[in-house]
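Researcher: For the annotation table, I need C-alpha cells for FMN-dependent oxidoreductase (Nitrilotriacetate monooxygenase family). Please keep the output clean. Sequence:
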Amino acid sequence: MSGRRPRGPRPPGAHCHLAACFPDADTTTVWTGPAAGSPIEFSSFEHLARTAERGLFDFLLLAEGPRPREQQGPVHDRDVAGRPEPLTVLNALAAVTERLGLAATADTTFHEPFELARRLATLDHLSGGRAAWRVAASAHASTGENFRRGDYLERAERYPRAAEFIATARRLWDSWTPDGASQPFAHQGRHFDIAGEFTVPRPPQGHPVVIRTGRSGEARECAAATADVVLAPHGTLEAGRAFYADVKGRLAKYGRTAADLKIMPGVTVVLGDTAAEAQERAATIRRRLISPQRAVLVLERLWGVDLSAYDPDGPLPEFDPVADPRLTRDLARHGDAVATAGKLRALSKEKGLSIRQTVIETSARQSFIGTPEAVAAELAEFVREGAADGFVLVPQLTPDGLDEFVDRVVPLLQERGVFRTEYEGHTLRSHLGLPVPAGDGRTTPSPGT
C-alpha cells in the first residue's frame, strides 16, 4: 500500500510533522534543466505528491496566484507558464494518493464563504478526509482588478474579514445534521450577510484543517484563535522557541490547548556527503536562483522604477525608492521601502557587494545545509527544544529535490524515533493529532481513522 513502511517502535517524546510545498515560481526553487518539468503539468504535481506520501508526510501544500506577478507592466518571466487553481489540482491528486493531506491556498479577500466552503468540503469528501485550507488575505492591489469587487482591502480590514470568513465557513460545514439532513443557515456580520442551505454534507473531518501564517502580532493572534497549523517564519533556534512560546501562550484565552495548534516553519534543505559539499551546493543553488536579470527585477519591485540600465554587477542605486501609492500597497510585505533600501545599500557597501550579490545575500535564503545526519539532528533539535512541531519543506531543485530528502533524511529521523514509520490513520487530522470539531463548535479527540 502507498506510503507504508515496516512498523517500528512508536516515537518517544517529541514527534516531528513534515509537509511539502509545491515550489512556487519565485526565488526559492530552480525550475531549469530538461528534467525540471512544468509548474502547470499534472505530472509535476503528481511526482511531488507521490514522493511526499512515500516519505509519510502529513500534507502537500499548493500556493496560490490569482494574478501573475508583474514588473512595470510585463508579467514576470517565471510566471509566464501560468499558475493553476490549487483546489482543482488537489481534487485530481486525491485520486493518485491514499493518505497524504491536500492543502490549498485560498484568498479571503476576493472569495466568498459559500463557494469556497463548498469546494473545500467537496475535496474533503473526495479524499476521505484529507483536505486543508491555507488562509490567505491578499496584500496586492492589482489582484482586485481580476474580481468584481476590485480595488484593494486595507490592512486593517484584511484580518477581520478573514476571521469572519473562517467563522462563516465553519457555520456552513456544521449546517447539516449528523444523520445527513440539510438545514438552513444564516450569517449576518460586518463583511458577510448570507442565508440559505449548504449543498454538501458535513466533511469527514468535521472541518478541513485550517492553516495560517503568523509573522506579525496580529497574525499570531488570529492564528491562535482560528488555525490548526501555523506556518511560522523560520529563524534561529532561539527565535523559534520565542515564537513557539508566544503563539502557544495565546491559546488558553480561546479555550484551546497546545496540542490544538501545530507550528511548522517553512524551510529549505541542501544536502551533501560532507559539510563542505553541502555549502558548495547551496552556493550554486543561490547563484542559479538569482540570475543577473532577476536581481535587477527584484530591486525594481522595491525601488518602483525601471532599473534596466543598471549593471547587475555594479552598485545599488543611490536614490531612494519612488513613493508610488499603488506599488506601496502591492508590496506591503516589504514594509517601509525607503528604510529597506537603506539597509540594502549599507549591506552592499559594508561587504562590497554588487546588485546581484546583494540580492543573493538577502533573498536567496536557505534554512538547513549539511550532511543528512547533521540536518536530521538539527531538525530533531528544533522539535525537541520547543521551537517547532514540524516543518514545511520547499524543494529547491526540481524535479527530485524532495526525493533526496525522503531517501536520505527521513530514515534518519525514523531511527531517532521522532518521525512515524507508517501512517496510523487516514485523515489529515489524525496525522497531525488534531481534534475533530463537534457540530456545535466543541471538539472531540481525533480518531485513528
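Researcher: And a one-line annotation?
Model: The chain has two domains: 17-272+366-444, 291-363.
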